[in-house]
Amino acid sequence: MSANDLRTFPLVGLEAVANTRNDWVAVALRLHPDTDVQAALLTLFSWPDMAAALAPLDCIVPLADPLRFDDTHMPLLPASRVVLRVRASVLIAPAARKRCAALADAGYRILVDGEAGLHTGQAGAVGIAADCRVALPSTLSLVSLPGPHWARKIADTTRLAACRAAGIDWFSGPYACERQTTPDDSTTRKRLLELLGLLARDAETRDVEVLLKQDPALSYHLLKLVNSAAFGFTNPIHNFGQAINVLGRRQLQRWLQLLLYARQQQDGPANPLLPLAALRAAQMEALVGLQGGDRDRQDMAFVAGVFALLDILLGMPMAEIVGALNLDPEIAAALLHRSGPLGELLALVEQPLAEPAQLAALGLSNEQFWQSQLQAWHWAIQVGRNL
Questions:
Q1: What CA–CA distance (Å, rounded) separates 111 from 104?
Q2: What is the DSSP string of 307-334?
Q3: Is 3 a residue whose pLDDT tops 50?
Q4: pLDDT at 212
Q5: Cα torsion for 374, 379, 384, 387, to the nearest 10°?
Q6: 78: Cβ–Cβ under 8 A, 6 or more apart, which residues?
């Protein structure tokens, strides 16, 4: 791929960065290697409502050459929301350190990507950004800076625990999709599958209500949701019948599909799968809409996106889950084989970084893909905050 392929509009991947409670605190921008990083950032941050879509998350952006970041760029990249990631090797140059120090004085937080050297303090850095697949940053480098420190590319929960024990604050990587061990009994698993089956068949409201009453955790989260500021109802909702009536059938199905991922203890950490499921579902829906799909096709895309993590949530083979749910054949093909129109879109949204050829084959432009990302991230952020 040449830089010319991305000249009209840059392709960017967005990666969630979470804290110790699995809450999203930042989003990291990932760009193709051939992209002009400086130009890409200015284009992306010029997009209408870009900052609002990702609020309140910080945006971690790579700064390949601090000397190219001048004062005219600052209004587009607000210091209150932008964290600059600078490679440690770049800071060897005195001019780069001086420019980073000036940016730090202007309010930007700077993370050094790599082992902090002797000159890190001169650059105004506050923390370390480290690829933690092989080795953790030294204790000296971590304690010498106030943080936050960001551990990237964490493969599993074992490595996550080591990063936390080392004193790192922010985390990202595929660990969030590691197969879970909950639910921990066959009764709960059977109830979950039964509820999913009712939703897939568009069952009667009273049947859904009966099953909800058997699941205290899910019931709690549903009532908490409808009484949150996100819905703004004047009078408190106290029972399932009211909740179902005020949400409506379509919204009820969507929220219940997501609430399946919100089964943590009331005072425990968030389930890292919840915002990921919301993100994939919302982007699938947005992409189908951009392709010209009607409301029914968009609903199918949403279901495929939200169900794509059920095998991880339930600790079961996807074939077994699909067999129990009697799903539409196109949704089943997408979940089992990533085949068919929905399967191709699902494979696309699951990738860390899309390719222009993929988008072209699906009839989508780079700009449309960026639009779908912002729309999906905005919704997933709200879901994470309300659940």
A1: 11
A2: HTTHHHHHTS-HHHHHHHHT--HHHHHH
A3: no
A4: 78
A5: 180
A6: 51
